[in-house]
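Intended use. Records like the one below are meant for learning the mapping from a protein sequence to its folded structure. Do not use them to infer anything beyond what is encoded.
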Amino acid sequence: MPLLLLPLAVLALVLLWLLLLPLGLILRYRNGRARHRAIGWVLACNAWLLLVSALVFLASAWGSGHWVTHALPWAAAGLLAGILLGVVGVFGTRFEITPADFHYTPNRWLVLMLTVLVAVRIGLGMWQGISHVRGGADAGDWLEDTGSLFTVGGLLLGYYLAYAWGLRRRWSTWRAERGG
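Structure written out for the chain above:
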């Protein structure tokens, strides 16, 4: 009897995820455009760990190249575009610098654009999955269409990588001017 309830539990979890997904995206947007206090060690950890993540991402894309055609070039192009967008994001950030504190507020339009990009990519992934299930296409055909997943992942990772390093640089400059 409990095994018969397993499909219902899976269906309930999928429906819960579908209901909470828009809420998660809205909360991500609200947090992304909020004013943040910069803390030096947090900025440094974030910047270095994002650099490690970018290297792991590129290595994973290279490894996925066996199954997904042109995974590494798509990932690298997304990463490069994200780095350029991150530099723009640092210049679009509002900094509030006092002798005691360093605060920053990201550009709300860039945050909105990235949030919408994530939502569109999730929707595209769902559409691809449903089309695959309905059409009965070969699994290899479906995998070949996922190059945009690497591009979007690279774009987001590149943006946050450049943004973290830009914030770290601005914080270091503020710290040096402050004399500490």
